[in-house]
Amino acid sequence: MNLKKLLFRSFAYIFLILVFIASVFPFYWMIVGMTNSAVDVIKGKMTFGNQLIYNFKTLTASYNLGKILFNSIKISLSTMIGTLIATSMAAYGFEIYRARTREKIYNIILLSMMIPLAALMVPLFRLIVELKLLNTPWGVILPAIASVFILFFFRQSFKSFPKEIIEAARIDGAGELRIFSSIVVPMMKSTYAAAAILSFTTSWNSYLWPLIVLQTDEQKTITLLISSLASAYFPEYGIIMMTIVIATLPNIIVFFTLQRYFVQGMTGAIKQ
Amino acid sequence: MVKRKMEHSILCKNLSYNRILDNYGWLFISFALMLLVIFLFYPIVYSFYLSFTSSKGIVQKFIGFENYIKLFNDQMFLLALKNTFTILIIQVPIMLFLALILADILNDKNIKFRGFFRTGIFLPTVTSLVATAVLFKMMFSLDGLVNTILLKLHLLKEPIPWLLDPFWAKITLIIGMTWRWTGYNMVFYLSGLQNIPYDLYESAAIDGANKIQQFFYITIPMLKPIIIFTTIMSTIGTLQLFDEPINLSSGGVTASSVGPGNSLLTLSVYIYNLVFKYMPNFGYAAAVSYVIVFITAILTFIQFKVVGEKE
User: Locate the ABC transmembrane type-1 domain: which residues (chain B) (predicted)?
Assistant: First the structure.
């Protein structure tokens, strides 16, 4: 019995360690890679090299890295703020003021999650052209704000929000908007943090729609830069690695600073 | 009489109060709803209409089901369909099963460093799909890292032509996707497991159930709703696969073949090509995209049925 238990546990640890290494190793490799030359990267050199400064200089000489990062930050932050406001308010509206018509609308919205972006590509592209948003950050931001998944996520979390608090506030004479902004939002901090992570990283990482909308180098985002560097005829692998590190870093920072909330927020949403 | 009047007025007040609240309901959802109508519902409907039209240049005419009929003889479309399904059927079950096992192990309070393991395994989720694909493209190059390691460990005699052979290219894509998404799904399961009373496992252990039995008789049944949810989300995600195949293949969006012998040509990539690479035929592209919608709807329906869940 005890031997069996021990066996199980050692298997569990071996399995965990293997998956852990597989998960984390590429991160080590990309950091090592940005200090190496293209040839060393592609040959799989696993130790640090001395090409870091050369790679950085080459990258910044051929691309306006500051501008590209600025574009990415502008798009991701705007999308995130818009998403948090629009979807959390909508989720609150659907959940707290339940009504049959709105419930039907909500179900239709959820169903639309099944429809791939590719299916919207043609009409959405025409729409963006007509609204004169082609090759502007707004062409990427506006369609991304009303994220159905995050709306769903918020609503699941609001389900466990104690309704008595809202009732009590109403009796005290607080207005509906006031209740939302100064009672509900502060109490749902971890949900907001989790949604912020999801929204920011999704926008930061998005590729297909920015690829279609942002057509000039002037508007390029960091994700588009990785893709175009990697599809060059003679890819500069060390520089690609550096770009990947630069692109991944903000996500890691956002994740580690908000991680505690993230787990809480996810748990809150799934409880229902 | 007076009492009835009072009741009436309270009722009226309640009615009008309810109406006010109802208006607030509309107010709260208005911003998101407006955006959804413009950027989601309108394109969905318009795209459906487009799928029954033919557009060459600026001339657009209604042609009924012709686009859909044409699909059956379109070798490229059939290949894209086959590729997408192969990836879906192999990748999603492997990934979700892996995520379930990991969540189950990490839920065991006797395991040490659980937070450390969880963070590490979740970490790939922060990388973009593009970065993932490009990383894997470099790692799996012919004389690259993976082949070097496998050769050094004497697990291989010859290097595997990972991205040069149609079969291995799909395997590489599947490995990359699994690396990227397993931790993500694991977090959903872990959150779900928090709601299963831990005593359940303890009493099962006292009754002599081993870990494997506990996994199949407690974890899986208790997580059923979340398993359905993640299965549906992964199915939808895989049917929309675009970033990874494009960035794994050499040449990116401009390449003539997506992966060796178009082995990484997925439905979404095909739609993109129809719209932005070939002679644009919007109607036909819309028909292909509605095939994805129909398949997603059917698969979601089946997944609900198979599990037999009411909700």
Answer: 81-303
Q: Which domains does chain A show, CATH number per domain? A: 64-220+250-270 (1.10.3720.10)
Domains of chain B, by residue range, sit at 2-50, 69-307
pLDDT tens-place string over residues B143-202: 889 999 999 898 888 899 999 999 999 999 999 999 999 999 999 999 888 888 888 888
Contact: A116, B293; criterion CB under 8 Å = yes
Beta carbons of B202 and B247 less than 8 angstroms apart = no
Residue A62, number of CB atoms within 10 A of its CB: 11
C-beta atoms of A116 and B149 within 8 A: no
Tokens representing A242 are 């550096």
Contacts of B46 in chain A (CB under 8 A): 123
Smallest CA-to-CA distance from B20 within A179, A97, A161 is with: A97
The complex's ipTM works out to 0.90
Within 8 A by CB and 6+ apart from A215, the residues are: A134, A135
Of B53, B56, B66, B78, whose CA–CA distance to B280 is shortest? B56
**How many CB atoms are located within 10 Å of the residue B202 CB?**
11
pLDDT in tens, A155-208: 988 988 888 999 999 998 888 899 999 999 999 988 998 899 889 999 999 999
Alpha helices in A214-270 (DSSP H): 222-230, 237-270
Spatial separation of the C-alpha atoms in residues B14 and A175, rounded to whole Å: 17
The CATH number for B69-307, chosen from 3.40.50.300, 1.10.260.40, 1.10.3720.10, 3.40.50.1820, is: 1.10.3720.10
First to last CA, chain B: 48
Q: Which parts of chain B are beta strand (E)?
A: 53-56, 59-62
B252 in contact with A at a CB cutoff of 8 Å? yes
Q: Which residue in B46, B74, B70, B80 sits closest to B170, CA to CA?
A: B80
Give the mutation candidate from B34, B38, B123 for the A interface (greatest A CB count, under 10 A): B123
The percentage of residues in chain A with a pLDDT greater than 90, rounded to a whole number, is: 65
Instruction: Kindly report the nearest CA distance between residue A116 and chain B, in angstroms.
Output: 6
